[in-house]
Amino acid sequence: MTITTQVWDIALEGLTAGYGPKVVLENISTVLPGGKISMVLGGSGCGKSTLLRQIIGLSAPMEGKVLLGGNDFFAMKDAEFRRMRRRMGVLFQDGALLGSLTVGENIALPLREHTHLKEAEVQEIVLHKLSLVGLAHTTALYPSQLSGGMRKRAGLARALVTDPPILLCDEPTSGLDPISAAQMDALLLEMRERFPSMTIVCVSHDMESVKAIADHVLVLHEKQVIFQGSLHNLQETTKPYLLQFLARAPMREEEQGASYPLSEATRAHMHRELELQ
Amino acid sequence: MVTVPVVAVGRASLAFVGEMGAMLIFLLLGMRHMCSSTKQLQRVLRQVHVIGAGSFFLIALIGLFTGMVLGLQGYYTLTRYGSVGMLGSAVALTLIRELGPVLTAIMVTGRAGSAMAAEIGVMRISDQIDALEVMDINPYAYLVSPRITACLFVFPLLTAVFNVVGILGGYLTGVQLLGVNQGVYFYSIESSVVFADVAGTFIKSVFFALTVVTVCCYKGFFANLRQDGMGPAAVGNATTSAVVLSCVLLLLVDYVITSVLL
Ligand SMILES: Nc1ncnc2c1ncn2[C@@H]1O[C@H](COP(=O)(O)OP(=O)(O)OP(=O)(O)O)[C@@H](O)[C@H]1O
Ligand SMILES: [Mg+2]
Known about the structure:
The structure holds 2 protein chains of 2 kinds. Chain A is of the alpha/beta class. Chain A is built from 10 helices and 10 strands. Chain A has helices spanning 48-55, 78-86, 103-114, 119-132, 148-160, 178-194, 207-213, 231-236, 240-247, 264-273, and strands spanning 10-19, 22-32, 37-42, 63-68, 71-72, 88-91, 166-170, 199-203, 216-221, 224-229. In chain A, helix 3 (103-114) packs across helix 4 (119-132), helix 3 runs parallel beside helix 5 and helix 4 crosses helix 5. The longest helix of chain A is centred in the C-terminal third of the chain and has 17 residues, at 178-194. Chain A is globular. Chain B is an all-alpha fold. Chain B has one domain (41-261). Helix content of chain B is 85%, strand content 0%. Chain B has helices at 4-32, 39-52, 56-80, 87-125, 128-134, 139-177, 182-192, 195-221, 231-261. In chain B, helix 3 (56-80) runs parallel beside helix 6 (139-177). The chains are: A alpha/beta, B mainly alpha. Chain A binds chain B through residues 53, 56-58, 82, 85-86, 88, 90, 92-94, 96-100, 109-110, 112-114, and chain B through 39, 119, 122-123, 126-128, 130-137. Magnesium ion binds next to helix 1 of chain A.
């Protein structure tokens, strides 16, 4: 058996992205190194999911390029673009399992669509992948019958089912209890062990899991990359926003945007209406 | 300004024409994958079950009552002219040429078309369509094509059911209730309905199928681009506008086809 040894670097060159006229990321240039676990950090709404959507080719950049293994993703011919897509496994922020299929059918879908594997083989693979995320007992359930955290883990099983060389996860550990979150981290580490060429990119705001698994860290803030480098470098940083981020300190008042005071009279009235008094 | 209403009308018409064009392209994209793989067959059968088998009794029921009302109205109108013998012909031609295909299409729109728009709309807003795309599963092939194929089979069949049950309904009121001669009822049907009428009913139902399935899938598919709502509200609005637009376009298409066929 030959395992592809090509390592896929993901490079962004002058990437500007957004929705309609709204710019969310502006002129970003960075490299997410192949064969490593890169973590993208940043406050809520700073454009982490948007960045991921660019890398998986769901929306074209307003300007700039996404380079996968040195090739411009959006300039590829259709056949090549699709082959590139099949090399990616993606975990969406809320799983995005198909609601009309059972969990087992969801995980089996990419195999059934793209391969001629025998049904028994498909079942074997599905059970194996589901057991990796601890959900082997849920094959016959529908996604709506799972909890949010279980949906997320099932989504990861689907992303992993084809052993993709590029794995992209949008907040794999958010919404999970500490034990499942630690399991998720262990699973990602295990993937890196088993497939040394696998490029893993995770969006996260969970500092615990960043500390546990990140090889490379990217921090987004106000449309820009404000930090890129190893975890070690991040911990040595002196930039105020990063220090705050690491120390889980709240924003200083002047950074928070407009603040609106609540008058005593209004509060008292609301409490009376709600029969709190 | 005096030009304001003119500008508004112009904008609305342009938007309408643009949307019609987008829907036509959408339909062609969907049709391209109708026979792209053997896996489609399974999905088509599933949709035939959902759209067709699920609507069967509804269509039969509506057909029965429509036929009964036609029998009743036809009887009292025809007695005025002393030509009750034409009752069978009146009921059958009205059903086959006009009411059968139109009412079937409107009922299927209400029952299955709305469900189609809502289901696809929910898939859109919960990233499921994006997930399909990223897995390199063409969402047109997976979601739209099987529904088009299924509708192309189901609409003519349901229309036929509607027509037959409707003629039986006319028989119930006309013959059993009001005493028209049974032989006369069926003879007048046989002598007046020609092949062109039956062909017309199927031609209409095929065009209606394409209209309904395109509008309903399109509205759901692009629920995320709506200006009039976000999230669940967008899906609700998409469903409403799918049903309304389907019904309006049905009658428009009906007029055009009828004028061509006559
Ligand atoms: N479909 C959309 N249309 C318009 N604006 C959007 C859309 N999706 C996201 N945005 C905006 O883009 C910005 C970035 O959103 P994004 O989802 O990338 O944030 P995020 O970093 O993933 O946040 P979170 O950690 O909460 O998931 C937000 O300000 C959001 O308001
Ligand atoms: Mg996000």
